[in-house]
Amino acid sequence: MPDFISGEVILVDKPLKWTSFDVVKKLKFQLQKSTGMKKIKVGHAGTLDPLASGLLIICTGKKTKTIESIQSQKKEYTGIIQLGATTPSYDLETLPENFKEYSQIKENEINITAQKMVGTQEQLPPIFSAKKIDGKRAYDLARKGETPKMRSKEISIYSFEIEKIILPEIYFRIECSKGTYIRSIANDFGKKLGVGAYLKELKRTRIGGYQVSNALKVEELSAFAETHTVL
Prior knowledge:
Helix content: 10-25%
Order of helices and strands: EHEEHEHEEEHEEHEEEH
Number of strands: 12
CATH topology of the largest domain: Pseudouridine synthase
Largest sheet: 10 strands, mixed
Number of helices: 6
Structural class: alpha+beta
């Protein structure tokens, strides 16, 4: 029987178009309803963009103190990189532009490029990101037509595997460190190939030893929360 008040770590398979905060809000509301308590600590370990799906780890009660240690663990993602165009957001939040021919790109070139991107490096976050610039979210500035000045950050790509190629789509699996933007990897990948690219699809499959295969669907959260232990 889970004890949400003392603290639990809950794995959720976040669906597309939901924000990480939406999931936290849904669980918190259900716990407040089930326990009758207004103040319940609920937080998540690592934000997922609305256009990304997959593993979101939610901590309650005293387990919220473990959020930082969970966030620092290695992460795994699968997804699709689309060649032949770019977008301002590096994903499909904004419309594709700068179209280029991609049919000349060979499979061997794609695999070699992926391997060259493995390692520790400086990465520039997308302007459409939650990074704070002078106290404001970068994406808020970008959506107003401003160009926030982003600072690079050291990240590590531990593995970058190309699982399937159906041009212009490249199916991949990546293991990386905390703070890595897969959208930026897609954008950099397109630059290296000379044809541009953006992130078409993304799913987080693992954080440390936590697997999305063990996660609850959002529609299962309410029933799960009702099994709380009342202290």
